[in-house]
Design a protein that fits this description.
Elements (H helix, E strand, L loop, with lengths): L4 H28 L8 H17 L8 H19 L6 E4 L2 E4 L2 H25 L14 H40 L5 H19 L4 H15 L1 H4 L3 H18 L7 H22 L10 H9 L5 H7 L27 H6 L3 H10 L1 H4 L8 H8 L1 H21 L4 H5 L1 H10 L9 H16 L11
Antiparallel strand pairs: 1-2
Length: about 450
C-alpha cells in the first residue's frame, strides 16, 4: 500500500474534477434529452475509468479490503457482462424474449454508471483523511462466545430440518413453485435458521482464536451450503465473502496474492455454474462457453438501469424506491404479489412486474440495482449517497477492528455492500434490529442481576 500524502492530495483533487466533469456531461445531455455519442465512446470511458479506480484504490488499501470487495462485486454484477461479452449492448434477453434498447438509453445508463462509481471513489479517497483514534484491538469475550455457542448447537438440528423440508418442496413442485409459495413450517422451525445464523455471527463478534474460528466456520459453511441445493446462491456466496473478509481482516498475516485470487475465483465460478445448471435440470442452452455464460448471466444487473429509464413513469410513489426497505410493509408482504407492489415499492419488483407481467406474479424476477435506485431517486440524492457510500465503506473497514459494535453488525454491512450492485442500496433494517437486540442481550447478560450468581 502506498501512503504518500502528496499522492493522496493530488488524487483527491483530480477525482473531484473528474467527477465534476462526468456529472456536468450527464446533466447537460439529460437536460437536452440527447445522449447521442459515438456508439463505443461511453463504454470505452467506463472501462478506462473503472481500471483507473481499481489501480488507484490499491495504492491505499489491501486486495481483501471491503472497498476492494465492493469493486469486485460491482464488476461481476454490473460490468463483467459488458466488458467481456461481444454481444450487442442494446439487446437484453429474459424469460419473455429479447428486448432492444435505443442507443440513447444505453449511453445514458453507461454515463450514469460512470458518474456514480466516480463519486463513490471520491468518497473513498476522502475517507483516507480520517485516522484511527484508538489502535487497541478488540479483546476476546469468552462469556459472549459461550452464550453464542449454546445457541449455535441448540438451533443447528432444526435448521437442518428446515433445509430438509425446503429441498423436499423443491423436488415436489420445482424452484418457481417454491419461490412463489414457500414452505408451510411451524414458527419454531422457521426461526431456528435465523438463530443459527446470528449465533455464528455472535461467535465471530466474540473474537475467538483462529482454531475455534476455523472449526465453527467449517461447520457453518457445510450447513449453509444446503442453500446451493435449494437454489439460493446469494445467501451462501455472501456468507463466503463475509468469512473471507473476516479472515483476512483479523487472522491473516499478509494480504492475499493474485494467484490465490485467481484460484478462489475459478473455483467459485465453477461452483456457481454447477448450481445454475442444476436449477436448469442440467440443460445448457447457449452457444457461449461457460466462462462467458457466467459473466453474462451474473451481469444482468446492468440492464436494470435501462429498464428503469424505460419504465420511469411507473414509479408513482412520492417516496423514492431506495427507501422502500424501511417500510414495515416490506416484512409483511414477502411474496411477489400485486399487494407487495402497491404497498412496498421495491424498484426490482416494479421493474420485474412491468417487464415480465404474469411471469413476475408466478415467481420470476430480474433482481435489482442500487445504481438504478439512485437514478430513480434523483441527481441530488445520487450525489450525496454515492459520496457517503464510498466514505463509509473505508471508514467502517478501518475502524471495525477497534469497535465490537461495528464487528457485531459487520455481516449486515459487508453482505449489503457486496450485494448492492445486484440488489438494493439499503438492506432491510428489521432483521438487523432483531439480531442486534439479541447481541446486546447476550453481551449484557453477565451484568444482569437476575442472571448473576450470588456469592
Amino acid at each position: 500500500m502506498y501512503k504518500n500524502p502528496n499522492a493522496r492530495n493530488i488524487l483527491l483533487i483530480f477525482q473531484f474534477l473528474l467527477s465534476l466533469f462526468f456529472l456536468s456531461v450527464f446533466l447537460i445531455e439529460k437536460n437536452n434529452n440527447s445522449f447521442k455519442f459515438d456508439s463505443n465512446l461511453p463504454l470505452i470511458v467506463l472501462q478506462i475509468n473503472f481500471i483507473y479506480i481499481v489501480i488507484t484504490s490499491l495504492f491505499f488499501i489491501k486486495k481483501t479490503s471491503l472497498y476492494s470487495i465492493f469493486i469486485f462485486c460491482y464488476f461481476i454484477f454490473s460490468l463483467g457482462r459488458i466488458f467481456i461479452s461481444n454481444e450487442n449492448l442494446n439487446s437484453f434477453s429474459s424469460i419473455i424474449g429479447t428486448t432492444y434498447f435505443t442507443n440513447e438509453v444505453i449511453n445514458e445508463s453507461i454515463l450514469f454508471n460512470i458518474c456514480i462509481i466516480s463519486l463513490i471513489h471520491l468518497g473513498f479517497l476522502s475517507s483516507l483523511y480520517i485516522y484511527k483514534v484508538d489502535n487497541s484491538p478488540i479483546s476476546p469475550n469468552p462469556t459472549l462466545f459461550n452464550y453464542a455457542r449454546f445457541l449455535f448447537f441448540i438451533s443447528l438440528p432444526l435448521c437442518l430440518v428446515k433445509f430438509f423440508f425446503e429441498i423436499k418442496t423443491i423436488s415436489d413442485i420445482g424452484y418457481v413453485g417454491y419461490y412463489k409459495h414457500g414452505t408451510d413450517l411451524p414458527f419454531i422451525i422457521n426461526i431456528m435458521r435465523f438463530i443459527f445464523e446470528i449465533s455464528f455471527l455472535i461467535i465471530l463478534a466474540s473474537m475467538p482464536s483462529y482454531i475455534t474460528f476455523k472449526r465453527y466456520t467449517i461447520l457453518f459453511l457445510l450447513t449453509m451450503s444446503l442453500f446451493l441445493i435449494i437454489g439460493v446462491r446469494s445467501k451462501f456466496v455472501l456468507y463466503f465473502i463475509f468469512i473471507f473478509w473476516y479472515y483476512y481482516k483479523f487472522y491473516a498475516k499478509k494480504d492475499i496474492s493474485f494467484l490465490k485470487i485467481f484460484f478462489f475465483l475459478s473455483i467459485s465460478i465453477i461452483l456457481l455454474i454447477l448450481v445454475q445448471l442444476n436449477r436448469q435440470n442440467w440443460v445448457f442452452n447457449s452457444d457461449l462457453n461457460y466462462f462467458k455464460y457466467f459473466f453474462i448471466s451474473q451481469g444482468v444487473s446492468f440492464y436494470i438501469l435501462p429498464l428503469t429509464i424505460t419504465y420511469i413513469e411507473e414509479f408513482t410513489n412520492l417516496i423514492p424506491s431506495i427507501f422502500s426497505s424501511f417500510s414495515i410493509n416490506s416484512i409483511i408482504y414477502t411474496s411477489q404479489t400485486i399487494e407487495r407492489l402497491n404497498n412496498v415499492g421495491f424498484l426490482g419488483d416494479i421493474i420485474s412486474y412491468n417487464h415480465l407481467r404474469d411471469y413476475y406474479l408466478n415467481g420470476n424476477g430480474l433482481g435489482g440495482s442500487f445504481i438504478a435506485e439512485l437514478y430513480q431517486a434523483g441527481i441530488i440524492i445520487s450525489i450525496i449517497f454515492s459520496i457517503l457510500l464510498g466514505f463509509f465503506i473505508n471508514y467502517f473497514d478501518t475502524h471495525v477492528s477497534q469497535n465490537r459494535y461495528f464487528l457485531a453488525i459487520s455481516f449486515y454491512v459487508v453482505s449489503n455492500i457486496a450485494y448492492m450492485p445486484r440488489s438494493v442500496f439499503f438492506k432491510s433494517p428489521y432483521m438487523l434490529i432483531s439480531y442486534f437486540i439479541i447481541f446486546l442481550f447476550l453481551l449484557s447478560l453477565p451484568k444482569i442481576t437476575i442472571f448473576t450468581r450470588k456469592n
